[in-house]
Amino acid sequence: MNTIKINREINPGTYRIEDIFDGLRKVEILLQIFGSSNELDDVFSKTKVVVDTSSTYMHVKNEDATIVIGLDHLKNSDKIILYLDIVHELVHVKQQRQGLDLYDKSYSYVDRPTEIEAYVVAVKEAKRLGMEHNEIMNYLEVEWITQDEHKRLATHVGLKP
């Protein structure tokens, strides 16, 4: 994690992943996600990152796997949160490349298989980094879910609420 440098001096626009997250390509968890160096190289060469002022956090566009990052999130959020978010979103990039619907409306957010998979990876990485249980629980607590949904998400990813 210390080998990753986050460029917070970015203006709204379109970038490569490593323009913002320098050193991310070398993170072991990404090789586990994508399965091979060739696939990971392909993802890093083809995935666009859009920084904009209208997004709040990060998300992946279902149609082309572009990662969108809110400018305020990039400039002000804690480094570890940004790191876990980009790992989470790269799981969604993999899923989109596999043809999965990232926003399948037949599931609630916390029950959606694509979200659960992405959060499982982020939680695994959070534990590897030494984050405490309560810190990981705070990471999972996003404002668009209820307390009951938060508990359900925690359970889905193997944490005790």
Number of helices: 8
The low-pLDDT segments are: none
Give me the strand/helix succession.
Answer: EEHEHHEEEHHHHH
Q: Mean pLDDT, rounded to whole units?
A: 95
Largest sheet: 4 strands, mixed
In terms of DSSP E residues, the strand content is 5-15%
Terminal CA distance:
26 Å
The total tally of domains equals 1
Q: Which strand order do you get reading across the main beta sheet?
A: 2-4-6-5
Helix content: 40-55%
Oligomer: single chain
C-alpha-based Rg, rounded:
15 Å
Backbone shape: globular
Number of strands: 6
Q: Structural class, judged by helices and strands?
A: alpha+beta
Give a written overview of the molecule.
The chain has 161 residues and is an alpha+beta fold. It has one domain. It has eight helices and six strands. Strands 2-4-6-5 form a four-stranded mixed sheet. It has a two-stranded antiparallel ribbon with strand order 1-3. Strand 5 and strand 6 form a beta hairpin. Helix 2 packs parallel to helix 5. The two termini are 26 Å apart. The model has no long low-confidence stretch (mean pLDDT 95).
